[in-house]
Amino acid sequence: MNLYLQYLTALAPEVIVVATALLVLVMDLVLVREKPFAQRVGLTGAIACMGCGLAMVWVELVPCSIHSAMLSVSPLTQWVKVPLLLLTIFAAVLSWNERFTRHAGEYFALLLLAAAGLMLLVSSESLLMIFVALELLSTSLYALAAFDKSGVASSEAALKYFLFGGMSAAFTLFGISLIYGIAGDIQLDVIATRLRGHPVEPVFYAALVMTLVGFAFKLAAAPFHLWAPDVYEGAPTPVASFIASGSKVAAFFVLARILLSAFPGARGTASLGGHLPGWAPLLMVLAVLSMVAGNVAAIVQTNVKRLLAYSAIAHAGYALLALLADRRHALSALLFYTITYAFTVLGAFAVVGVVEESGRKASLADFAGLSRRAPLLSFCMLVFMLSLAGIPPLSGFFGKFYVFTAAADTAPKLSLLWLVVLAVAASAVSLYYYLQVLKQIYAVAPAPASAWPRPALSARVAIVLLAAIVIVLGCVPDLLLGKISELLKSNSF
Amino acid sequence: MQACLFYLFAALTLLCGVLVIANPFTRNPVTSAMFLVLTIVSLAGLFVLLHAFFLAAVQILVYAGAVMVLFLFVIMLLDLKEEERRKIKAGAGVLGLAAAGGIALLMIAVIRQSNAGVGLKPASAEGSTLDLGKRLFTDYALPFELISLVLLVAMIGTVLLSKKDLK
Fold this sequence. Notes:
The complex is a heterodimer.
Chain A: H1 2-10, H2 12-30, H3 37-61, E1 66-67, E2 72-73, H4 75-95, H5 104-122, H6 127-145, H7 152-183, H8 188-195, H9 202-219, H10 227-234, H11 237-262, H12 279-299, H13 304-324, H14 327-357, H15 370-373, H16 375-389, H17 395-408, H18 417-442, H19 457-475, H20 478-490
Antiparallel strand pairs in A: 1-2
Chain B: H1 2-21, H2 29-49, H3 53-77, H4 81-85, H5 90-113, H6 129-137, H7 141-162
Helix pairs in contact in B: 1-2, 2-3
């Protein structure tokens, strides 16, 4: 009995989110079934946001800390749930005005269950929990990606996502079973103690590669990125924004946890000329491929969603650099980078969603002359694009700067300099395609006689808030970094 | 004797597994489903060798029995004549074989070089229902409950996607 109570208090935020999901389903079925669609979406969406808000308040107000075989709840993991919940709320708000489905209750319930998967992923301590939470997240996202039943694009995207995801999950499970065979346990810190003092077995490297496949898929790191462009393009826009933001933050965090707390001894080195086998060279390969493939392919895109997908692949590459840095900086650089990136990309998708609402597609030409009709929206898009490119006063710049300096500082000093140089060159290339979007918005004349987006108040407020977050975190990065480093100081993980 | 049985069941599992996806004689989906039943049954044999009797029984009852019947229903309800006529592309086949063979060779080489699991104690629990139930509701209570959420998501998703949208 005691055990269950312990779990219940430690997982109260997750329980709140899951209970809200069930409440949303029941409300939609019982109370508002016959009401007009706008009311149904409004009510169920509001409940979903309130549930996430309540969970956030709980996380902030009720400190909790437990470390068991399955679960690790610490101030750090609790804090990471706050941006995840915020991202969920933003995605829910942006769905309010979308008309891609008539099933409001199911939509928000699945969104909330995906959020619960994200939160559980963050505080999992055993590989089994990590796998199950990952499956909860993935299954919800597959269903969400297929929500738009008016055309084939959404179903095709979902099917592709599902097949790729299932295959990579199978590889990850195989890898996890091999790790269990080697270490005899699935709890992260127990694995670390069992592996300590033994020479690393060759089969362990095979297990490592296989386990990484599933995570590389979730992060959309090359060569496991093939699903990303189709899914970002085909899935409903709020869903695509959630896939691009929330699931990335959680996947990066849990990957860092696995690598840094379970396999600290199998690190290896990624420096040029002095390779030692381990996970660092694997991440290095993923990072290089992602940066090159993402940036090169993004240049030729004419659809803004596909462009954002390839840019997401490139950004996964930059963020992987943070993991290669020394333990001291790796986690704070990674968290700062992924969180600011998530808010930025969510904002960019929100603007794309608003443009699509006016009956347009998301191709570059559809953005022509946006600044004449929607100056505020255009300015926000400018902020998001420049932040993604890494232009100074915005948070994207500081994130990249921190990641690159942390990677360059890795002991032995400057051993990863070539990677950093490559990353800087890649992000210089990326400026070209971000500016392509801005050129359409600001410099090209609009097509005559076409409908223009009239974003709803909620969407406008959300976009402006996201832009404000991006600007503020760029000007005062200490707001976020101070908190992260304080949390990292107080507990090891 | 034990080792003999192990190799027998393992070989059967692999052979039937291959025949599910690449049967050289027929491309009839029903035959594939039948070979899947055989794969599951031989896997159950492996479970018995590990003293996991309950798991073996459940494997046959639930997977080979209930789930496969549903599989067959779906296959027979769908019109899969097209699938039968479709040829496997030679390039894709060669590439797939090369990839699978490469991974298999790599795994064999790597496992032969390692002496993993030597220092580990054999599992203490026998696979009885009592032990299994205790484990599920104490040590593994959390993942067990989580799986119910995964099933809920799968259910909502399936109902939603298979429903016809009346516009």
